[in-house]
Amino acid sequence: MGALRLLGSLLLAAACCHAPRDAVAGDEPILDETLPGGAALIVQRMPAAPTFGIALVVRGGRAEDPQTQYGLTEVLSRMLLRGSSTRTADAQALEVESAGASLSVTGGVLGVMLRASGPLQAFDRTLDVLLDATAHPRLDPADLAGEIELARQRLRASFDIPSTWRERAALPLLFAGHSLGRVADPDHYLESIDIAAVRAAHTARCTAGRMSLAVAGDLEPGHVRRTFQRWLASLPIDPGPAAGPAAALPHPRPLASPAHARAKRRTTQPELLVALPTPGIDQADEPAMDLLIHILTGPEERLALEIRQARGWAYWLVSMDWRYPGAGAFGVLTAVPRKRLGDATGIIVRELERIAAEPPGAEEVDRARRYLLAELARAWQRPSGRAEAFAAAAIRGRPLLSYDARAERYANVTSGEIRDLAAKLMAWSRPAIVTLY
Amino acid sequence: MVLTGWLSGPAAAASTLLIPVPEEGSPALYSLTCPNGLPAVIQARPGTRTVFAQLSARVGSRDEPPELAGMSHLLEHLLFREGQAFAALRRVGALVNASTDFEQTEYHADLPAAAFDEGIDALAALVSGAAFTAADVDRERRVVRGEAALGKIDPAAVVVYSVLDRIFHGDPIAQPVIGFRRTLNRIRVEDLRDYHRRHYTAANMFAVVVGDVDPARAAGRLCTAIDSLPQGAGTHPPYPEPAARIERMYQFRTLVKQCYLMAGSLTSGAAAPDAPSLELLATLLGDGRGSRLHRRLVRQEAFSDDVLAITFQVSTAGAIAAGLAVNPARAKAARAALLEEMRRLTREPVPPDELRAAVSRMAGALDARFETNEGIAEFRARRLLLHEPVGRDDYLARLRAITPEKLLEAARRHWGPATGESSEGLIEIQVLPARGFGKLIAALRFLMFRRL
After folding, report:
1. CATH class, A21-232 region
2. Which of B15, B31, B255, B303 to probe the A interface (max A CBs under 10 A)?
């Protein structure tokens, strides 16, 4: 039997070990360069990957929207896919989707991000549609009326979701007087935005110096560079200021004492948010912040064990983790029966205080590292996951890190650093406690 | 040679059963049957750093007696939390989860590649044992009630409960997978252990492993890990086609501000020959910015960008539907446009270029799924569940063989011929804002629903 087993194993070893290195094997170097005109280009090759990912980020987001024009970024971003000077919106969609690719756009706090992904053979045409949409949008007044109606409808529909009301109660409390604390007024939302404002925002923001293009896939970096440069040269607009990350937001006001708010809404699921504003997270503290959040709110970690496992109060528990240059928020969101809201608040506050006082155990730090790396490995399997991570890092002014570099940063974080970071955040502000029921 | 160091009896036997599965772009895809009868699929994707492992039991809410609705899902919660095995998965940094639906309960872990052995052992231990106590059952019952509350948070969710019950009254498919408060309260620890004993057998389960593994070694380890599972009497027999009693319109007035409009039809399920055509119809209608509903309801008429078109298929039943959320002032016009777009598919063949674009969208979506170990494993697990070939070539070939005429036939079969203004063939569901005294009634209904 032993000999047969050995023979079988040898045959299998011969039969099974011919799999080629897969698309995501190892990390190629990350090309990061600033092109003439100030645009940044980031490319990471993924040899043999059958798909690509593109993320084009344009600096200038909600934080830049004037007080009277809240929502301008959202409208501008959506207008980019309403057709260009040479393509209708239908043609944009058809050209991309008939090649099996997809293209979308979102307006965020720091900028507008266009994302595309698809099979490798669709790369050139998808990039062309994406760049054309960004540079030469049609910006037609009739389309603007449609987009404003759609945005208002989204806002109205969100009011049927109880969590919306918790968020609308929380943001002004966490970020009083700050751009992050603004919420849409349903009676006047977007009423002061006209096509001139959208065109002005496009002219001011969609300049070469504000753009970072991140691409991942089995692509030759020189080819991507040439395509991008050719397109940049055709830009009818000023290059604008030099490339760089988004300007830091002003710090939010720290809360001198715990602040409370309740959103009154009929719901089957009362919600609880315990969170504190932050003045942003220093680059050096980012890995410790990832670990801190996982130790507190990760699946089956401290708070899940206390609130879900030990007591059976909650089905879900997640973190609030907003990180922008100069401002952010850090906290815990969960849903528990109404009669448990007070007890759950106490548990969360105690755990926050505990981690600010005692370094976490070596085992839980180690577990957090492993979990975060498995999560990162999963994201890294997708070219679009890499492209979006690089674009997000560029706009936040963070270094472009490979998988191995990230692993090394996690490995270097000590328990004491996690405690110190928690203590720093807790000392900066007291928490806001927001309930929904 | 290295392999021989650890291969034990069942592992070595399993190794001899590895059968290559041909698939373009996937040179290391294999099927096998473990010595205890458990079928499995293994795919090596070197360099991906993780291994996605899934163990599935062919059991779900369709197997539950009405008085114990929710039992499959409650059992999933209890097995998932099994102490030592779960601790081992946490220790290695696995991303772990589980889910239950009408015909399947699955447990999966995305494992760091270096921890595959420990992880697959733990995952197998999770589904093999039923070491929970009555206290565990009570605790998880509370958690499941919280999960049920999540499902009811959207007032429109009441529709799912009501419509399923009205269409399939008396059949287990009408029960919510999560069960009801009263049925959950009735489930005892012995019921769960017995249920586990009957359904969690090698013959009634399957496994999928995709990632940074050596296939022979992974096969050996998998088969050793699940060797304690009893062989069982056989795989689950086909589910019967549930009897349906259909009304043309299901209308609800409840505590919403917007109108939620949906139209569609029942189908014969994923095993029916026209299932791929229905998926393609849903794509044509609502998937992507180039889809018909997006062009008409979103871009042209600006009713809402909350538009969807979906198919939901279990083996012998299913539905295809499209809908949107819209401002009440525009609901009548939105409904007319929605129905018109659906009826158009029963009147005119889809132009070949539009058909090709929709097929490309579906193929592209599959390409995107195939970027991750998880996406590949999910695809193959679904195919195993339905007893279909696990390779994607077969799926794509069936998709590409669909002609405009076949699509027209499928649309007509399910949505009937369009006649004037009638929505014959289409079933409609509407959730509308309650008005006046109706608000009070709706509030009372909400309170009752919350207690379900």
Report:
1. alpha beta
2. B15
CATH superfamily of the B256-433 domain? Metalloenzyme, LuxS/M16 peptidase-like (3.30.830.10)
d(CA A24, CA A15): 22
Answer whether A392's CB lies under 8 Å from A354's CB.
Answer: no
How close B210 comes to chain A (CA, Å)?
Answer: 12
What pLDDT, on the 0 to 100 scale, is given for residue A37? 83
pLDDT at A242: 59
Q: What is the DSSP letter of A137?
A: B
Per domain, the residue ranges of chain B are: 9-225, 256-433
- CATH architecture of structural domain B9-225: 2-Layer Sandwich (3.30)
Same fold, A21-232 and A259-359+414-436: yes
Cβ separation A383–B45 shorter than 8 A: no
- Given pLDDT bands bounded at 50, 70 and 90, which one contains residue A5? very low
* Torsion sign over Cα A110, A112, A118, A122: negative
Phi, psi (deg, nearest 5) at residue A190: 70, 10
What is the arithmetic mean of pLDDT over A126-143?
Answer: 96
B249 vs A78: CA distance, rounded Å: 35
pLDDT band at B444, cuts 50/70/90? low
* pLDDT at residue A190, as a whole number: 96
Nearest chain B residue to A364, by CA: B91
pTM for the full predicted model: 0.91
Tell me whether residues A150 and B304 touch, CB distance under 8 A.
Answer: yes
Q: Is B336 on the interface with A (CB under 8 A)?
A: no
What are the distances in angstroms from CA A270 to CA A165, A312, A335, A337? Answer: 11, 15, 6, 6
Quick check: A92 and A129 in contact, CB under 8 A?
A: yes
Other Cβ atoms within 10 Å of B197 Cβ, number: 12
B351 shares contact with chain A (CB less than 8 Å) = no
Q: Which two tokens stand for residue B95?
A: 């991303």
The domains of chain A are located at: 21-232, 259-359+414-436
- B7–A378 CB contact, under 8 Å: no
To probe the interface with A, which of B360, B374, B378, B444 has the most A CB atoms within 10 Å? B360
Three-class secondary structure assignment of chain B: CHHHHCCCHHHHHHHCCCEECCCCCCCCEEEEECCCCCEEEEEECCCCCEEEEEEEECCCHHHCCHHHCCHHHHHHHHHHCCHHHHHHHHHCCCEEEEEECCCCEEEEEEEEHHHHHHHHHHHHHHHHCCCCCHHHHHHHHHHHHHHHHHHCCCCCHHHHHHHHHHHCCCCHHHCCCCCCHHHHHHCCHHHHHHHHHHHCCHHHEEEEEEECCCHHHHHHHHHHHCCCCCCCCCCCCCCCCCCCCCCCEEEEEECCCCEEEEEEEEECCCCCCCHHHHHHHHHHHHCCCCCHHHHHHHHHCCCCCCEEEEEEECCCCEEEEEEEEECHHHHHHHHHHHHHHHHHHHHCCCCHHHHHHHHHHHHHHHHHHCCCHHHHHHHHHHHHHCCCCCCHHHHHHHHHCCCHHHHHHHHHHHHCCCECCECCCCEEEEEEECCCHHHHHHHHHHHHHHHC
Mean pLDDT of the region B332-350: 96
Cβ contact A97:B297 at 8 Å = no
CA angle (B288, B290, B294) in 5-degree steps: 75
Model confidence at A123: pLDDT above 70? yes
Torsions phi, psi for A189 (to 5 deg): -60, 125
What pLDDT, in 10s, does the model give residues A55-89?
A: 999 999 999 999 899 999 999 999 999 999 999 99
Q: A259-359+414-436: what fold?
A: Cytochrome Bc1 Complex; Chain A, domain 1 (3.30.830)
- Is it true that B9-225 and B256-433 share their CATH fold? yes
